[in-house]
Design brief:
The protein has helices at 15-20, 35-45, 65-69, 84-95, 137-140, 153-166, 172-194, 209-231, 236-242; strands at residues 23-29, 51-55, 100-106, 111-120, 125-129, 145-150, 200-203. The chain is an alpha/beta fold. The structure holds adenosine-5'-diphosphate (ADP) and cytidine-5'-monophosphate.
Length: 244
């Protein structure tokens, strides 16, 4: 079909670049708020699209042997615990439609695997999930949609105790100590203040089916408009109205 508006080299993004870019969703919230659960529900509903989940956890810095000796004094909830430069590079590449190698992190040994990684391929939707994914402005700016999962602290602590003792090799005392010393203060200092960047706040996490349905509907609409950009690559009127 003929273009509705002639193309111009002065326009910032070429239409083909825009058409290639995946829709990037950031999902943040406190520990055990249900971030992963919400992401899984979104992915399930978008089964007819290519959707990948990238966890900020994969970008934890591995502990040095010295740090490993005093692991109970290590603050895993501080922004410095993550290799944000590596995370940023990874999301930038995904945004450009390139595949990436994501590290594999072990919560029991607090280390990254040295001989394996997860390959993440080009997708329609990239979901970036983690307690501090809204902390760095550069990472935030790559997101097309930001979701904050808001679950009461007592519910989160109860879930965290169960999860960390069953899945992450911890005992209950160490979970409670870590929560009081690092997890709760970091939530107050870094995670809660980043809630203001969210486009959507989901109370009660995965129990909130209405919120998840609405989010999925919005993503579907955006992906549909994306298809339009691909069909009419020179139609800047359409592209600038609908660009995601
Ligand atoms: P996050 O990714 O925010 O840490 P998860 O989605 O992994 O949270 O949930 C943390 C724990 O709580 C998991 O063991 C999960 O099975 C459980 N959980 C999550 N959402 C619910 C829910 N709505 N009801 C009951 N348990 C839940
Ligand atoms: O899955 P969730 O969002 O709860 O993961 C983040 C939490 O994992 C942080 O609150 C941090 O305290 C915890 N963590 C840990 N041990 C590690 C790395 C992270 O307890 N080695």
């Amino acid at each position: 079909p003929p273009p509705l508006h002639s193309s111009s080299s002065s326009l910032p993004n070429s239409s083909s670049d825009a058409a290639k870019q995946p829709f990037i969703i950031g999902v943040s919230g406190g520990t055990a708020s249900g971030k992963t659960t919400v992401c899984d529900m979104i992915i399930q509903q978008l089964h007819d699209h290519r959707v990948v989940l990238v966890n900020q956890d994969s970008f934890y810095r591995g502990l040095t042997p010295e740090e490993s000796k005093i692991v109970h004094e290590y603050n895993f909830d501080h922004p410095d615990a993550f290799d944000t430069e590596e995370l940023l590079e990874c999301v930038e590449k995904l945004k450009l439609g390139q595949s990436v190698h994501v590290p594999i992190y072990d919560f029991v040994t607090h280390r990254k695997s040295t001989d394996s990684f997860r390959q993440v391929n080009v997708s329609d939707v990239i979901i970036l999930e983690g307690i501090l994914v809204f902390h760095d402005q550069r990472v935030r700016n790559l997101m097309n949609m930001k979701i904050f999962v808001d679950t009461d602290a007592d519910v989160r602590l109860a879930r965290r105790i169960r999860r960390d003792t069953v899945e992450r090799g911890r005992d209950i005392n160490s979970v409670l100590e870590q929560y009081a010393k690092f997890v709760k203060p970091a939530f107050d200092d870094f995670i809660l203040p980043s809630k203001k960047f969210a486009d959507v706040i989901i109370p009660r996490g995965g129990d909130n089916h209405v919120a998840i349905d609405l989010i999925v509907q919005h993503i579907r609409t955006k992906l549909g408009q994306h298809e339009l950009c691909k069909i009419y690559p020179n139609v800047y009127v359409i592209q600038s109205t609908f660009q995601i």
